[in-house]
Structure formats: C-alpha cells, structure tokens
Amino acid sequence: MQKVEIKDLIDSGVHFGHLTRKWNPNMSNYIYSEKNGIHIINLYKTSAKLLEACEALKKIASTGRKILFVATKKQAKDIVSELMKGINMPFITERWPGGMLTNFVTIRKAVKKMASIDRMKKDGTFETLSKKERLQVDRNRAKLEKNLGSISDMTRLPGAIFIVDVKRENIAVKEAQKLKIPIFAMVDTNSDPRDIDYPIPSNDDASKAIKKILTIVVDAIKEGLELRQNEKDAAANSESKDSSDSPEIVPEMSEKSKSVDSKNKGKEEKENK
Predict the structure, then answer these.
(1) pTM of the entire structure?
(2) Are β-strands 91-92 and 198-201 bridged in parallel, bridged antiparallel, or unpaired?
C-alpha cells in the first residue's frame, strides 16, 4: 500500500478546509487550527483515517465485491473516470439517479434496455426502423450511456460506496445508509462525519487534493484485486497438480472376461504342445 506522507498531503492542499463560519461542529475533532478565516485540517488524523479506509477497501476488493465511486462535482469527474479505468470499478460522475441503490431493480432494467439497443444495432433490427425512430433510439441510448454507462457491469448492489463531498451527494449517503452499505468518503470541514463509516477528513474542493486521496485509495484497491487474483491462480495450480498426480486407475476385469482369458490361455498351451 502506498505510504501516506504528510508533506505530500500538504503539497496537494489536503489540509485546507472551508471558511470558519461554514464549519460543521461535528468536524471539530479533525480540525487543527484556523488561519485567515479558514479551518486547517489535522493531517495526522487524515493520514490515520486514510490508512484505516484503505485497509477496509483492500479487504472488500479482495472478496470480489464492487466499490461504487460517486463524484458529480466538476473538480472530481475526470479524475474519478480516469482512475476507475485501472481497477474496473463502477462510478457515477453525472447526476445521481434517484433510487440508484434503493430501487436497483429498476436501474438494472434501464441498463438492460441499453444492452437491448446495442443488440438491435448488431443484428440489423435497428436498420429496419424509420429515420425518426432511429433518431429517438439513439438519443435514448446516449442518455442512458451518460447516466448509467459506467455501471453497466454492476449486476448486484456494491460492497461499498466511496463519495467525494458527502454534503453534495447526500441522497447517495441516505440510500447507502438505508441498505447498510459501508460508506467511505472525503469529508470537508463543512460536512457531518457521523453519517460516514470511514470518513477521511480532507479538502474535497481542490482537484489536486481529490486526486491525491483517490490515488492512494485506488492503489489499495489494486492490492486487494491482485490478492484475489493470486488466490485464484494458486487454487487453479493446486487443482491442476492434484489432477496430474492422481494414479491411473486400471479397470478390474469382469468375471466373464477372466473366463474368456483363461480359455484362450488353455488353447494356446495345447497348440504349443
């Protein structure tokens, strides 16, 4: 797992909170001081909480469960979509679809509809439609892709959810809470950490700070995925070895075969005499 250096966190601006007048009193334990009307986050606590979150995320990834990342704010969109390519995890960077978790069955139907349109284009059915119908189908497909494309491979509820800016993504937080899905999140000084299972006190507005935290998180998830792959490979090798080491089983002759074999031997002996 990537080591968390306080200097790197400072260089990335992770310690900058919000204006003191916008603070949430429940974040007091994570605030180090105040400077020029801005709260400064205690990076030693950030480091400890980040490592704790990374260990938990690594464990979840090693079980094969998906971790859903949510970041709809402009500063985080591109960072999340780019980092997720390396770990193949689902993510939401557009508007959070209401009922994404609590009404997952309906969301899956929308994803299947998207897949159905793709099949139409492959088997030629799409070409039999009128020009107007094709245009409507294309628009529908584009809309679904924009909102749900990144979760098209998520066949069941995620094992955890990671949020950038819990205040902005409050609906996602409520849905995850209702379903008891573990919540990991970057929590700034204007937010309430009590609703989060694994809060990481940090600046959630600066793209540099967001990228720093997410890069460390993604590295931990990669380790979990590698651990799972190594276990699979070891199990496959073990099965292969057991198969090759097993003794060859020679089928026992039936009584009828023994009798025929005995007669043939007696015949051969007479002829030799």
Answers:
(1) 0.81
(2) unpaired
